[in-house]
Amino acid sequence: MHLAFQTLLVVSAYFVSTIATPIIWDGRASLNLTNADLDTSTGPFLTVVKGSENASHYSQLLGQSLLPTPLWNGGSNSSEQQEQVVSVSIDNSSVFVPGGSSPQYGFRRTDIIAANNGEHTDLITQMETGKTIFHVSIQQDEQRPLNYSHEYQIVFIEPNDGTHVFEIQLGSPFTNPTGDVPVSDAHSFKVRDHALNVLFTTPFTASVWHNFAVEVDWNALTIAVWYSQDGELLQQVVQTTSNPTASSGPNGQGDFHFTVLKLPLVNPADSPSNQNDVVHYGIQEGATEALLYSGVFVESAADGLSRGFGVVQQL
Asked: Where does the secretion signal sit in this chain (predicted)?
């Protein structure tokens, strides 16, 4: 067994009271994880997809100032708190420069990637074999709201070809030319498959933890979706459905991101060819915007799906 995976299983023991299935990767930030750890990708997060400032400029651990989703924390008060919320933000410096590539001036993005002390390649294979389940809980940062005239891709698995096995999206989808924005469902989550079909939508209401679980069968190329709010047990909202445009094997595997990735609006002053290059061109306002995350982990489906508070449903 890979040493980092052994360490992960030990860390996961802190949460055995609320999860009974095998944990492959645990991104529920322990109370002893620090912002300095974010700067060095020490612990469960790789934090290099960001702007020019330190990672802790864009991502912060909130300690006991805000309770995480209660599904995995044994209760609803701070004395029982087992993890800390992660704030993920962007501002006008949030321009990522991939190694050997041009700056992504079209985007504003801060991504947190599943890893074990910076190592993510071996973890991809562990997370994306057989049938696995990706959990994430999301809450609004009401002091740093999103601009819903833009599209935000906030949770996804990204293979090397830049597609997404699945994604959770907010805002108004990018169009060229830009249509009337914000669109009517801009304030709703959209869970989309690899072909960008919307499988599930629900309003992104304030002061509520929105809990998601996406089940991926990497052999059959299917997905299913579970959802709840705050301390309600997860309920299946999308039955197992084919995801046939996704690739099988290593070509279909990739890093697991939770993020604030904001797409631009079309700039009429750009050339026609550049107007479709959302990565490098377009309009961004540069305001500080953020989302709050907790309950992020990946489990094997071998013993079922964790619905919260130790309740497991066999699949």
From this structure: 1-20
Token pair of 71 as six digits = 């599904």
Coil/strand/helix, residue 7: helix
- Alpha-carbon distances, residue 293 vs 147, 198, 234 (angstroms): 18, 22, 17
**What does pLDDT average to over the chain?**
92
Question: Could you say which DSSP state residue 265 is in?
Answer: B
- What pLDDT score was predicted for residue 206? 98
CA nearest neighbour of 1 among 163, 126, 173, 161 = 126
SS3 273: helix
What's the CA gap between 99 and 28, in Å, rounded? 29
Structure tokens at 266: 């079309």
Residue 18, pLDDT > 80, answer: no
276 is written with which tokens? 């479709």
> d(Cα 83, Cα 227) in Å, to the nearest integer?
20
Which domains are seen in the chain, by residue range? 3-303 (2.60.120.1160)
pTM: 0.93
